[in-house]
Amino acid sequence: MDNILKWLKKGSLTLIALSLLPACSPKDNIENQDNQENQTKEEVESDNAELWDAVNPLKTTVSFLNTGAHPDDERSDLLAYLSRGLGVQTSSLIANRGEGGQNEIGSELGDGLGILRSAEMEKAAEITGVTAYHLSETTSDPIYDFGFSKTTEETLDHWGEDLTYERFIRFIREFQPDIVMPSFRDVPEQHGHHRTMTVLSLEAFEDAADPQVYPEHMEEGLNPWQIKKMYLPAESEDEASLSIEIGDYDPIYDMSYPQLGEESRYLHKSQGMGNDIEVEPREFHLELVDTTAVESEEEEDLFSGIAYDFKDWSSMINDDHLSEELSNLQDTLDEIVELYPEKDEIYPKTFQALEKVQVLINDVEDSDLEPSIKNDLLNKLSTKEDQLSELNLISSNLDVNIDINSYVLTPGDEVEISVTLHNEGETDIDNIHLELLASEDLKIEEKETLEQLESDKTEEIKFSFSIPENADYYHTYDEDILQLKLSVENQDAVSTNNLEFDNTVAILPEISTKAFPENIVLNTAELKDSYEVTIETENYSDDEQDVELSLDLPEGWTSEPETQEFTLGNTPVETDFKLIPPEDIEENDFSIRIIAEANNQVYDQAIQDIRYDHINDEYNLYPAEIHSTSFNLQIPENYKIGYIESGFDNTSKYLSNLGMDITVLEEEDLKSNNLNEYDAIVTGIRANLEREDLVENNDRLHKYVKNGGHLVYQYHKPGDNWEPEETLPYFLEIGEPSIEWRVTDETADVEMLQPKHKLFNYPNKITDDDWENWVQERGLYFPMNWSEEYETFVTMADLDEEPFDGGILLAEYGEGTVLYTNLVFYRQIDNQVPGGYRIFTNLISYNADQ
Fold first, then answer.
1. What is the pTM of this model?
2. What are phi and psi of 735, to 5 degrees?
């Protein structure tokens, strides 16, 4: 893994994503990939992987698109084989950003989690040589991961059917894939988001080629595009039209393609992805479901009926001149492949090939070829031009280092960029052109030219400019605000590469403010005289700032103090405010804007820094506000709760802020403290997964219940160190497959089976209203079997499904009680849903005296 990440390092201009390729081609009619080439590869050290990754794509013109719904949906083993093994232009189109999931490495949720997962996917894609795209265009985009869905209809109701499909068809027409394969099949056992991307992919086979579907695309210069083959993954060889052996070991990377796929999956750290696997045969089964390339009975391999290289293209073109030039071009490309790993010999050849490509592009544009063929061929030639430019840079032995005085910039900053060019090769490099590419609002025109860089010589070129005061602030999903365009001219050919900085360059507001807590719940049953909030103010500029901080309060509210004044340097400053509510506050939702004034500027944005070693730094900008909800919540007096946190929810913090007496139980507490001092002990969601000490002290918890305690377990997955016979005092088995044991409609009707039971009447009277306004879903991982000692309390179901009655289970054990709930109270509490608070308070208060 470390070697792969070293190869992928972007700053010193190893900016080309490195590939790990297969030792043999699967295309039957490319039979002359003889053993000599493979033997050559075996003899080459892995330091040449970067060069091979750039050489290998010259063998083919095929493009392959894998579609999915969430980051991590890509079929990494197959994509690694196609891209790194065969040189196929391979991409992954993902619908959303994974905002609705959990975070196994940090506190980011919602948009912050989406940013993290998108960055992880980008890094994972670099390892497999895949280009990653998303339908979701911005934070809080309509195409959002709103949680689990069971149907395409529900998914498109949330995303917007026309918006989603228009973006999908637009992408197909822009990328122009020869082959498309969704990651999943459209079957009831699959996530509705997965099913949606499969349905859209299948419909796009005809619609992307139909100029009457979104005709505005044609007005914008796009062309209809006919996908040549549509595949679905098949479960077995019996269901498959084609099975491909992808388990080959590649000596360059000292691993197989599935292992390479797993290396990429390890970078999905927020999802706990990646597995260690052995080198062994692995077949990938594919079902051909639509094609314009061949009759299904003629299916010989993945590329049957598709022009595999420019030799195939030359035989398709009804133009003798173009046909001959295309054939000659492929001869040149094949010669380059045969020259691997000799950089000094490859380098001049890349210019010859580039000249041929660039001439061909002009000739094809001027030709009378049929429009669809012209469009297709121009796309292939443009892709080859980019690939050759990349190879030209790698084979040139030109080492490029880009340094910037600061990756974090603010309006008015002076920016200094130093580009160091070292010619490590034996050939002089002529006509090197450098240009800073910048977002339009920066208005930069910085260019430099080196007429010659001699062998073993180094040149340093510096650029400097100022950030305009009205420059746009950074948005994570926009294109990079700065890149370096490096072009090299050689006679009639030009090699051009746009190089990225080795970390994110971001223009940020000078001042950011964040509230702790960011959400305040006001209990109208016990309204406090004041509520304390801490504002953290951070300076992103290099200069000290004299700051005046205030809160834009709702009518009737006041704060002590009204303002805070301080000097802000490089260290964040924390200031405390007391928020004083009016006496007659009612149930309501409202926000309090945080305002920082400095240098006659008003700053009202929060900046969430997202920093991990496995991704570039990212920043999530959002309004600086305190969100508040007020509602009536009854809390039992003198009731002590021990909370076993998992790190996956913030429930204990929110309940503590409401005045509940909650102690967070650490490992030593579970191991040796007197648990009987707590009226109730509550576990966070999936706590058995993260807290080995919880599993180890399971018997102590059982004894605690037997002695009169009340134990509340929140939901777990079957694999979360959950033992049906042992985890709880009585048998409880979590439903599998888990996809079938959930209620995803947050508005699903709920029937309270025992409405007069204490659970629904103390300390809060629970009514149907308390099940209103829930978010994301009702419950996950419902139990499917349990001991007869448990009582059931609610039933609920998604549309047209049988109801579940295991959402709340309660049993007496000795002198105490154990309660299991798989309802997603943590999401309701995170999102300040009054009914979620009231019901959960009742569940954990069962041991209190009425």
1. 0.88
2. -65, 140
